[in-house]
Amino acid sequence: MLSIEFIRKDKDQKIIDDLRVGKKTTLNFIYQEYYPYIKSHVIKNSGSEDDAKDVFQDAMMAIFQNVSNKDFELTCQFKTYLHAVSQNIWRKKLRDKKDKHFEPVDDLSIAQEEIEDAVLKMERYKFYTRKFSELSAKCQELLKMYLSGISMKIITERLSFASVSYTKKRKFNCKESLIKLIESDPEYKLVMGYE
């Protein structure tokens, strides 16, 4: 029995390691192995197949963000972790719809705080991405290059700006515009957990 537990832990750790490097075969495995389980749960709790796909995708995004952190350590089976994150996301969606037909699962052996953190990170990521897309195309391009580590000189050349100092000023203005877009949105306080 002990050897089965070690094999399971090794398999779950391999999934985490593969997710960290973006191994496509592992993503396919997770989808084939665990999506039917998540789909069944969502449908059983007032959802549709489309809802299940959305929940699964959101859960995978949240998990991917968590495992990207070097300090992340899986404290339960991967299946349990995925189910808990998915359940939390679906619960939040139902709460948002004011639907009260949710049947929680009590036998999850994972910290609620960890699940809520994953969901919150995913919500922040979606919020920031939405705000980023509201910037001008030139600002988006400039910031993407800057965040990719491209030098200011190369950015200046690629974007046909007059000088490196102008590029730096433009980058500063683009960042300020993004900050204003984020902080002026009423959803900002909610996503940041201030309400």
Query: What form results from the Cα inertia axes?
Result: globular
Structural class: mainly alpha
Radius of gyration: 21 Å
Query: What number of structural domains do the residues give?
Result: 2
Reading the helices and strands in chain order gives HHHHHHHHH
Task: Give the second-level CATH assignment, the architecture of the largest domain.
Answer: Orthogonal Bundle
Strand content is: under 5%
The level-1 CATH class of the largest domain: Mainly Alpha
Helix content: over 70%
> Which residue ranges are poorly predicted, with pLDDT under 50 across at least 5 consecutive positions?
1-7
Can you walk me through this structure?
- By secondary structure, the protein is mainly α.
- It has 9 helices and no strands.
- It has 2 domains: 2-116, Rna Polymerase Sigma Factor, Chain: A; 133-192, no CATH class.
- Helix content is 74%, strand content 0%.
- The chain has helices spanning 2-20, 24-44, 49-67, 78-97, 112-132, 137-147, 152-158, 164-184, 187-192.
